[in-house]
């Protein structure tokens, strides 16, 4: 690995869907500033948006909006997102693949995320869930 230090961005907020537009704008602007590539920024903003929505709807669905931390580290050759929450953990392997032929409503979030990044991992330890996403540039 190179000695280049990443540009780092951090957003901490309540996982409340009313903040969706603010999250989208923050990360789209951060990515455009880092890479000067609107298509990359738009695609990765969609990834973060889907992750944010999943946490708000599923991890905190019964408890109301809980804490959410989104970290972005941007290197010249890759970017890394960590989405961290304290909500209900889940097993990504138990989430069924959407049936794209049936045009179902909903259920595409995790599929979209996985299809748009190069590396995907999820862990849950000590009441903290972490989704790590890496996109090679």
Question: Brief overview, please?
Answer:
The chain is an alpha+beta fold. Helix content is 34%, strand content 29%.
**How does the overall form come out from the CA principal axes?**
globular
| Low-pLDDT stretches | none
Largest sheet: 5 strands, antiparallel
The SSE string, one letter per element, is: EHHEEHEE
Question: Helix/strand/pairing class, anyone?
Answer: alpha+beta
Strand content: 25-35%
The value of Rg in angstroms is 15 Å
Structure summary, number of beta strands: 5
- Oligomeric nature of the chains: single chain
Helix residue percentage? 25-40%
CA-CA gap between termini:
15 Å
Mean pLDDT: 89
Strand arrangement, major sheet = 1-2-3-5-4
Descriptive notes:
The protein has 137 residues and is of the alpha+beta class. The chain is built from three helices and five strands; from the N terminus they run E-H-H-E-E-H-E-E. Strands 1-2-3-5-4 form a five-stranded antiparallel sheet, with helices on one face. Strand 2 and strand 3 form a beta hairpin. Helix 1 runs antiparallel to helix 2 and helix 2 packs antiparallel against helix 3. The longest helix is centred in the middle third of the chain and has 22 residues. The protein is globular, with a radius of gyration of 15 Å. It starts with 6 loop residues before the first strand and ends with a strand. 22% of the residues are buried. The mean pLDDT is 89.
């Amino acid at each position: 690995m190179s000695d280049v230090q990443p540009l780092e961005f951090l957003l901490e907020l309540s996982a409340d869907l009313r903040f969706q537009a603010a999250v989208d704008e923050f990360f789209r602007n951060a990515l455009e500033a880092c890479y000067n590539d609107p298509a990359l920024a738009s695609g990765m903003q969609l990834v973060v948006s889907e992750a944010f929505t999943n946490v708000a709807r599923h991890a905190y669905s019964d408890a109301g909006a809980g804490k959410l931390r989104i970290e972005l580290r941007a290197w010249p050759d890759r970017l890394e997102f960590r989405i961290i929450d304290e909500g209900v953990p889940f097993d990504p392997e138990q989430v069924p693949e959407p049936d794209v032929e049936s045009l179902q409503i909903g259920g595409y979030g995790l599929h979209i995320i996985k299809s748009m990044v190069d590396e995907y991992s999820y862990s849950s330890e000590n009441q903290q869930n972490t989704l790590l996403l890496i996109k090679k540039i």
